[in-house]
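Please go through the sequence and fold tokens given here and tell me how the chain folds. Record follows.
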Amino acid sequence: MRSPDDRESAAYPLRGRQPTSRRAGRLALLAIGGCLLAACGNDSLQGGAGDDTSVQGGGGGDSKSDVQGAGATGFGKTCAGNADCASFGLTCYPSGASGNRCSRGCKSDADCGGGTICSAVQGSLICTLPGWCAACKTDDDCGPEAPICRTDRDGKGKDLPSYCTPECVVGDKSCPPGSSCSKGASTTSIKSFSCRPDIGTCTGDGSQCSPCRTDADCSPEHGCIQPSAASERFCSQRCESTPCKKGYLCTKLGGLAYCYANIEDKAVPTCSAGKKQYCDICTANWQCASDRCVSKNDESFCAQPGTCSKATELTDCPPGTACVPTSDGLACTPPLQTRCHLWKACSNHPCGASRTCVDGLCLDNP
């Protein structure tokens, strides 16, 4: 996870962002269907399970030729019910704020065509455009709702697998659950922010808390779950017969039982407790490494541990912040005109001795 000031450099910088213009590959993706399908509640449609459901299983496994044959005029078409998709040989699936879309069931990516992948949506496996956390090599591999192909590095400077992610603004709450809006050290535009998983990667070994799209990404005795649209999607151990490890609670979900994080004696479906760093947007103390989520200037963010002092704020606080009252006592806070977004733009891209941070950009000193 990146760190906000000069004393702790960012460990996962964004590297090599591709041009934002969409070439032929992107145009082909746009042609086959509006937006990435995401979970929502509409039980009248195919696959319309409620929020409290496992994302395992449920696709029809239609052939790739069937999906490709539907063509640009059918796949991804908005729909109110199955009748709107029947002439294309497709089914109407819920797709959140994007509106319902025509698609087909699948069992794996091999069943999908036309630049689509097999994804777990509302308890069913269906073909969707590549979205959040889909593997990619360039921007052209990503769908319109997660158009940036981002490459992070681990703490040793080694590239991690690239993934599709949406652009964002710190504070706008647009990032998927379990992720934060950040800017890498290799970019210079304050607009070059994108969402990064709080656990640091979109891939894993299939064990507890590994990221996943379907059950196939998880090891035996684990399932890929996303209990609600507001929770993270991750591999979780089945616990009907095998007890959860220390720090987890066995919780029923969709007729089965899975291991949730034990947070203050409550079962919480998360794998990113304590992962958010200073100035990352938060809603609860347990999300922050400092265990301290404060509110100031209509923005809630992770503060530093403990309170600061006005008398010693130059040493207590990161550069460019001040020790001021918040919802939880004194805390180091960016100026109102800067907030966390512009402050992060410079802190994640140190300006150096000959440059100055101006409106979130490092500019040469006059």
